[in-house]
Amino acid sequence: MKALYKRKVLTGIAASLMLTALLIVLGSSRSKRGAPPASAPEVEVVQVERRDVPIYSEWIGTLDGMVNAEIKAQVAGYLLSKNYTEGSFVKKGQLLFEIDPRPFQAALDQARGDLAKAEGQLAQASGQLSQSQAQLAEAEASQGKTQLDQNRYTTLVEQGVISREQYDNAVQANLGTKAQVKAGKAGVETSTASITSARAAVEAAKAAVQTAELNLSFTKIISPIDGIAGISVAQVGNLIQPINPNSGALTTVSAVDPVKVYFTLSEPEYLTLIKRNPTQAELNAANQRMQLELVLVDGTTYPHKGKFYLADREVDQKTGAIRLAAVFPNPGNLLRPGQYGRIRATINTKQAALLVPQRAVSELQGIYQVAVVDADNRVSIRPVKTGERVDTMWIIESGLNPGESVVAEGTQRVRPGAAVVQKPFVAAR
User: How many CB atoms lie within 10 A of CB 89?
Assistant: First the structure.
């Protein structure tokens, strides 16, 4: 009995072990058959585009006013008032500062008094001249009479009609009147000289009055142009001394509509431009046709187009570049002197260029490549030769064909020969 019971127990344990092993094998087999295959990665693709593309060149530009008027005092004195709002637009002739005018008003009053005195002296000299001229006329009339008497007495004394004494008296009288004539002429000359001196004194006094008036007008410092007025350096109550070489401008007014933008071209770029337009007329026409864009420091493009303005007379020997300037309309005075930006201009047009987004091109050890997706959704990594960058696109010189699909988003998730799921690429805005 014990042997039979032991055999039954062993048989049951063996059956249990076999069942357990069978369940494990079946479960493992079912698990292997039920595991889903790895899913293909999703990528965003874009087709290679072919179109004519304008080629741009860019240069760093510095903005400046068309005119930057430094406002300086021309007379010394205490600053009485500041009459403008700093950073605001001012008109030509608008009062900006006023220096205490009282010393200059006093100087003007004194100059006017000196002028009146000189004019009085001139009038007095004119009266003396008239008197001298009258005395000369009287002397000349007397001398004419005595000359006639002398002539008549000469004949009579020869005929013995009159005595020699009477004749001598006539001669002496004539000599006396001649002396009076000479004295009268001397008096006229003296009076004339006095008038000349008095007139010179009057002119000098008039000049002094004009100088005093000018100095008084300089106490009101006005804007010579329309423009934006800067921050005032001087404060009310300061002693302004323009003769001090260390004294700078009180402020600066800049005309900023239009605004000027300076930028530099390398000598090869300048020579290329000249060779394309060998005559001055062709160069002027090209400059007029050229539409310049201004890209601001925040990356936005200024809405108004600019025009070429001037080229400097020389190439800088230190940098090998030539300085140019463009002008841009500036309604609302948005742009200010001292800002930076990039001047962009179309210098050429590439015909039938192949374009892909810049993010579709990767670079590895100096080799540029793109991931191309074929009709079976399989990826191939293809080396390409790149050209110019145009906005967010890259010109492909060789390695791609029009209409091919390239991965623009998800290139890090693909490998050669891998299958992918394609989605249209949506450029970020």
Answer: 15
